[in-house]
Design goal:
Helices cover about 80% and strands about 0% of the residues. The chain is mainly α. Helix 16 runs antiparallel to helix 17. It has one domain: Growth Hormone, Chain: A (Up-down Bundle). The longest helix has about 40 residues. A hairpin with a 2-residue loop joins strand 3 and strand 4. It has a two-stranded antiparallel sheet. The chain has a two-stranded antiparallel ribbon with strand order 3-4.
């Protein structure tokens, strides 16, 4: 594979890596509203007097707004530029935390934590992923994995400080201080992000045996069965991971292991910190793997790993050490969806409309948040046990792995052959 550009290779590399680093920082700054949400569950329940299902709707609202508006956000970014939109999103994310510190009602929580954080994080996430698939056409899996890792890694730096500050200063002060700090960091990094100029994009020349790509507009993409298969698969995988993220403190307390000391620290915050590490590492790792052995083969491997990890977590649910170790394995098998799905989508439908196109696929996470958040809490309430919830997640993960290998792979192969035929005929 040959890359051609009018810029010196060294200068182009410096620009691309600098922007990748800034994207990583911006993603880290917006990750906490999702990944430390579970630490605020109990304080918000106490303040509002609402039940678990009603409170968990805040988390689903955050993810739904983060995802369902992403096609429009992607279009705005492509139309008006990345810098203004992504900077605005980073500011909204921090503002959502600050405003939620002053509310006492359930609807106030929805309107602050849910609304502002959801829209803000969605703009930043979709915008940065859309930038990276353009800047790194020859390593999309790795590049999207790196910035997606920022979204997974970000809460590593905040989980223990937030848990400690909630205990010592209360959750309101914690939301104000960390909301302001993370908002400022996100805005500062976003101010330097931009789309590549034509002479900054390497022109990839693919051998004849590789997929021949063309750019699909969003309307064209939405009419293909391939897109809807990817959408269904991402929904299924999102459900399991978001169930663990949103319900972690609830089921850890139900299992009686949340406050057990493991390796010198309480099991719950320790597990959350380790989860952020593995959730970050898996994204560039499996993205890099997929650049070499193929997207579908990597999906099969990672998704089966996720199913196994969830099953083991259920089997050893009353062991605090197992909770810490296995929850890390759960996220190592889950977080890579945020590198594998956008890179697969762009490989299949082209990079010209990558931001908007991924916005449509990203909506699948919003649906997954409903199933993994309030619906999972409802099922636990109806059955009186987390066992049916965990078993359902295992089934979804294993089914998605099979779909990747047995349906997605031949479908993409057929699509590639059709493109070759059309190209030859033209």
């Amino acid at each position: 594979m040959v890359a051609r550009t009018s810029l010196p290779r060294e200068e182009l590399a410096r620009r691309r890596w600098a922007l990748l680093g800034l994207g990583l920082i911006a993603m880290m700054a917006i990750s906490s509203p999702q990944y430390v949400w579970t630490l605020f569950l109990k304080p918000f329940q106490t303040t509002t007097g609402a039940g678990l299902t009603a409170i968990q709707f805040t988390f689903s609202l955050l993810i739904v707004l983060q995802t369902f508006f992403s096609p429009a956000q992607g279009w705005l970014i492509e139309r008006f530029g990345a810098r203004v939109l992504i900077t605005t999103g980073a500011a909204l994310s921090g503002l959502g935390w600050i405003m939620s510190a002053w509310i006492d009602s359930l609807w106030g929580l929805y309107a602050t934590y849910g609304l502002f954080c959801g829209i803000g994080t969605g703009i930043v996430y979709v915008g940065i992923v859309g930038l990276m698939v353009r800047w790194f056409p020859q390593a999309r899996g790795f590049a999207t994995g790196v910035v997606a890792a920022g979204y997974g890694f970000g809460a590593i730096l905040t989980t223990f400080p937030i848990d400690t500050m909630i205990r010592s200063e209360g959750y309101r002060a914690t939301l104000v201080i960390f909301g302001a700090l993370l908002g400022i960091v996100g805005v500062a990094a976003s101010l330097f992000l931009r789309m590549p100029e034509p002479d900054e994009i390497p022109t990839t020349v693919a051998p004849a045996h590789r997929m021949v790509r063309r750019n699909y507009a969003p309307g064209e993409m939405l009419r293909t069965p391939l897109f809807w298969l990817l959408f269904a698969m991402m929904t299924m995988m999102s459900t399991g991971g978001l169930m663990v993220i949103s319900q972690f403190s609830a089921f850890a307390r139900d299992f009686g292991v949340a406050d057990v000391i493991v390796f010198g620290a309480p099991a719950l915050p320790l597990a959350l910190t380790i989860d952020r590490i593995t959730n970050g590492l898996t994204r560039p790792f499996f993205g890099w793997v997929s650049d070499r052995i193929g997207r579908e083969n990597t999906m099969g491997l990672a998704f089966f790993l996720e199913a196994l990890a969830i099953a083991l977590l259920l089997a050893y649910r009353e062991d605090a050490t197992a909770l810490v170790v296995l929850s890390g394995l759960v996220f190592f098998g889950w977080g890579e969806i945020f590198s594998l799905f956008p890179s697969t989508l762009t490989d299949s439908f082209g990079s010209k409309h990558a931001t908007t196109n991924y916005g449509f696929l990203y909506m699948a996470q919003g649906i997954g948040s409903i199933f993994g958040g309030p619906m999972a809490a409802w099922l636990r309430g109806e059955t009186g046990s987390w066992v049916p919830v965990f078993l359902l997640v295992v089934a979804l993960d294993a089914s998605t792995a099979l779909l990747a290998l047995l349906v997605l792979k031949p479908m993409r192969t057929t699509m590639a052959k059709e493109k070759l035929v059309l190209t030859a005929a033209g």
